[in-house]
Hints:
By secondary structure, this protein is an alpha+beta fold. Helix content is 34%, strand content 23%. The strands form 3 sheets. A 6-stranded antiparallel sheet has the order 13-12-9-10-11-14.
Amino acid sequence: MYRVLLISANNWDSLKEVPVILKNAGCEVEIYAAEGSWVLANNFFDKWIDAGNYDEEFAARLIAYLELYADNYDWIIPGDDIIIRQLNNKITSPDLFRKVMPVTKIENRALLGSKAGLSDLCKQYNIQTPKYLVHDDTQTAESIAQYMGFPMMIKEDESEGGFGVYRCDSAQELTEMLSKIANKKNLVFQQLIDGEDVNTDALFKDGHLIVYSHSLRMKTIGAYGISTQRVFLQNSDTDKILSRLGSILGLNGFSNIVFIKDNVTQEYYLIEIDMRPNSWMYYGRFAGNDFSEAIRKIIAGDRTHLQPHKKDANRKIIITLYKKDIYRCITHKDVKGIMNWVVNRNQRWKYIPTYDKKLFRTVNKYLFDTFKGYLVAKRKKMFR
């Protein structure tokens, strides 16, 4: 049996579908997480290892566990950006690093959870990325504006989930933003190219591209936040780019890769790599990209690219995440969005997690509590 350890430090709901991907591939799944974590809100794992509360000693306890038991697992998956960064900062043993971290080439560990590190690696390996600048204390708003031009994106180095990312269109905005951002260490200024974001959810093994889904965002929580609806389509334009990224960087595991496709030149520019799993990877199977099937290939020793099913070649499929999108509708007061769920627009009912009673109940309770909280807050505002 192929034994997997899935680790969750931050209580991200993006991990709640990952155990079913692994179990459907025939894996024995163990989870290292705190009680009540979203990653435990399902019936698709074999063992839970209580990590205790998330605190300053979480990473130290985890490393102590890994030093004893890492060799018992065929695959170890750090599941969120926070624990990836902490492990990257604390693991000194090359052997433990290769066993645990989602990069085989230790010399490229700077890309793990660091936007500045990724930008510098793009320069080192001649990977096409928008023009960028990493902040240092000698720079002024005037010198940054002169070098970068406008519009630009400002990205805090260790931000995630769309937070800590800002658009800047003028020198005045730049000055105001710099005064508001408390932690400017490795702050990244990035050219804003006129184009569309291309999301790529991928799986690599030892630098080999095994499978990926290609999608475009339709609905998000906030301007640059978490996406709740995407259109999936097959696109082989990035095959060679992804294969090269996997090889030169040594990518080894689940990955969220974002490009921007220039509207004029139609070229792809790399803007983000996050080496962790997410919810969209489970739903890729509805668009012809089955991550469980890809994992079965890995277990069998096959490192070739899993090609999408031919029947899906020309299809565009709109997929909407049940929990995240209903939450967006409640918090954004999107009544039309709620009605789309009521009438099953774009067949969204099939993306409701009825395959797992535990997950279904947990999600519905969360949404009910969210809606109840919204009503209570609205009532207080009315009678204030």
